[in-house]
Amino acid sequence: MRAVPIATAVALCACFAPVPAAEAGPVTELSCLSSGDAAEAVTSRRVVRPVQAISTAMRAVPDSDVLRAVLCRDPQALVYRITVLRRDGRMMRVTVDAPSGNVLVVH
Question: Domain residues of the chain, as ranges?
Answer without folding.
Answer: 6-106
